[in-house]
């Protein structure tokens, strides 16, 4: 059976990212947070836009104050006050200073700031008690950024710090990749939506909601296509409908041994190439990965099909391990496709059969500066979903290993940001 890292490579090799020209949206600055930049952004203005002061103090000519000390202060005439936002009106001449506040424009003639703490003011005169360094506390125009040079590269996920940079550069329309479209199908005769009373033998289609949430959190656009009965014709019709609307199709259920034949057959009839049928992971062994070749007028890239196992825990684990990296690459992200794996310690013994890479769900916490993994209570059978609630990480027990003892180092996959 295929090891997880090989399966991931096979999948990533077949993902062709969105096109930076054709799959580009221009969104208003305020809507750009969480999107992926589709083109390099550069600014039209230097940063800082003009020489300004980094401190509250006095703008002076360095040569006037180069030798002063508490014993031999130099006293200067204050010619004006420059509060934030004001434009200096006068030129600082020899023997003069301007009162200046943090961020204010440096007046002509001055080249150095003396911080307030090193001065003593008497009316409209100021004594300088310590010699500053030449050009002290002056932020020079263009010191942080030169107009026209690259400011932000394409392929980055925009977050709060980037928003500050884009706003400063007055980038009002931001070129971002469109959101990948992900169709979601739940297969199974036993499934009903959550708003229906359950008849004997029926269960609620929870995967539709879990996968929709995962797709949304990944910055993609979910297309929930509902429940499809275990019937070849209905399945085929649902997949055809999904093909015309999506970049990725996720189905859950119907890929375990008994169902292989008809899913395979439908995918083949529709022109798909099946690359993966099972992966050595637990939970999640039955995993189908197929691609549909580009067919005009659809996008010029293969459409990806993931047949996830129906078990709710298996569907989640296989999404995090295999679908999310593919979705990240497809979405235009230049780097960082792999799941985030950190090293921590087990707080209780973890077990596996040793035959497959095992993912055990739980919570990671930082205790005394170290990551500690706490296994979720209750059954870790892939049929259980109740103890998935509030988990934030998966502990990984590698193939060939049957136990990890308390306190032993452990690889932990983060499934969302720690809280
Ligand atoms: P399957 O992969 O279709 O053999 O399904 C495996 C198990 O997962 C069965 O117990 C199903 O009832 C359950 N299951 C399948 N699909 C879903 C779903 N959409 N939501 C919740 N459980 C499901
Ligand atoms: Mg089924």
UniProtKB/TrEMBL annotation:
Pathway: Cofactor biosynthesis; molybdopterin biosynthesis. It is an enzyme of class 2 (transferase). It comes from the Bacteria. It holds the Pfam family MoeA_N. Its EC number is 2.10.1.1. Keywords: Magnesium, Metal-binding, Molybdenum, Molybdenum cofactor biosynthesis, Transferase. GO terms for molecular function: metal ion binding; molybdopterin molybdotransferase activity. Its cofactor is Mg(2+). GO terms for cellular component: cytosol. CDD domains: MoeA. GO terms for biological process: Mo-molybdopterin cofactor biosynthetic process. InterPro entries: MoaB/Mog-like_dom_sf, MoaB/Mog_dom, MoCF_biosynth_CS, MoeA-like, MoeA_C_domain_IV, MoeA_C_domain_IV_sf, MoeA_linker/N, MoeA_linker/N_sf. It catalyses: adenylyl-molybdopterin + molybdate = Mo-molybdopterin + AMP + H(+). PROSITE patterns: MOCF_BIOSYNTHESIS_2. Residues 183-329 form the MoaB/Mog domain. Gene3D superfamilies: MoaB/Mog-like domain, MoeA, C-terminal, domain IV, Molybdopterin biosynthesis moea protein, domain 2, Molybdopterin biosynthesis moea protein, domain 3. The keyword Magnesium applies. Belongs to the MoeA family. Catalyzes the insertion of molybdate into adenylated molybdopterin with the concomitant release of AMP. This is Molybdopterin molybdenumtransferase.
